[in-house]
Specification:
alpha/beta, 2 domains, six-stranded antiparallel β-sheet, 17% strand, disordered C terminus, AMP-dependent synthetase/ligase domain-containing protein, ATP binding, ANL_N_sf
Length: 512
Amino acid sequence: MDLDTLSFILLGSIGAVAYLSLNNSKTPDVHPLILNGQADVSRIRNAGESAIYRCKYTPNGQPLFSCPDRSARTLYDIFQQGGLKNNAQANFLGTRANGGKGAYEWVAKRVNNFGSGLLNIAGLKTKSDEVVGIFAPNSAAAHHYSLVTVPLDQHDTVSTLTHVLNLTGMTVMVVSSRTLPAALAAASEASSRALRHVIVIGTDEDLRADDRRAAEIAGIELRSFEVVEKAGESAPVENVAPAGFLAIVPPNQKITASDRHLSYLSLAHVYERVTIGVLTYVGGSVAFYSGDVSKVLEDAQEAKPTIFTSVPKILHRVQDQIIKQYGDSFLYKKGYGNKQALLRQGRLVNDDMWDLLVFRDIRTKFFGGQVRVLVTSADLTNAKTTEFFRIVLGSQVIQGYGLVEASAAVTATLFNDYSSTGAVGAPLPCNEIKLIDLPELGYRAEDVPNPRGEILVRGHNVFKGYLGDEEATRKVIDADGWLRTGQVGEVLPNGTIRIVDRKENVASRLPQ
């Protein structure tokens, strides 16, 4: 008897489902003992303080991890060693407008040209305290000539920009056509009157007559990026190298040259700089979003990132959209329940029958279909968000905690840790953590069952201090180098940290 086409399809589907069911491992992705002891605990502790907690790979008594590669200690080194040396022809930077074209070699040439032009035109000196403001997406040229950069968010107000100009005394600012009016307005209001050069991304044709007049009134020389780049090409200056991004990544989850990151957070957001640095170090690629946050998911569909970083607010919005579109579906509900049960057994699955029937479609529509690692910051409002995206995306979801003063991160959850305790992981290998009593808020290191108190961090990722404000620096960094974060934490039995509260007097210092 002959089999018709429909019969072949049905038989094939049954076979695929049977294979996927048998193919999935029945054991947890990582041994429970690894998750039960994620931190090294000091034997000595001071009164009113907890023990000192460290990553178990850099235990107490040993030096903290400073850099993953001795030859790559700066952003300049990372670009030269990780990207240019090993992946010169691989795509590095791109947008939807240029189709993702921008190899490391091509970027290096333009970086050198623009950096040289910046030095020649603005008279900047390498390895000095002179500041270059970046009111635009990227700052690689400054890193190649040992210049100090100040990233500015595109949503900063004129008053904020004025404060930054007065505080830093910056003489050069690189802007986009969108941020140019705010930059010129701030320059006119600033008492420092130090800003003398504004570089606008684009060509001379993009500069409007009104902007030229406003710049002239403010005593500012206005030039296009194209002009500065051509000036550097005709009079090149040799690179001047400056005088970590540290987490434990298992071999099978290693970030490689084939990975791609979709960049939509401002470079004023420290974690975005860290992420781009990591992708540069491994020779990966970075796709910049179209400029409209509401269209980030459209950008993701085209860019197809494998690494996706986000703040909780964006993830909550995406979660609501997914539930609204798929939440009433029988297949979604059944599949979600089954994958949730597997996850709570320690098994992350992305290739079972439910992925075939429903979740693969979600991954493609919302994230481009290639995301394997999603990274987000501490979320005090909904500990179940990470579980939701592990189920729907079938990808690793890493949650971390940090703040600007500690280079974005001080803790991170382990790969393959799918617990739903709301913890933000153990200390990174580059820093150590302790808690101190906050009796006025009812938190003490002696609390039962777990110690609680203000989180203090010390390590290579802690900043040196606030620019021009020694008094503010002394308030947050003590004589022993411990940074007071203003966040209240609880250390769980397995050595991971859970954020439980915030001190009122540091409400303005938001975590990354």
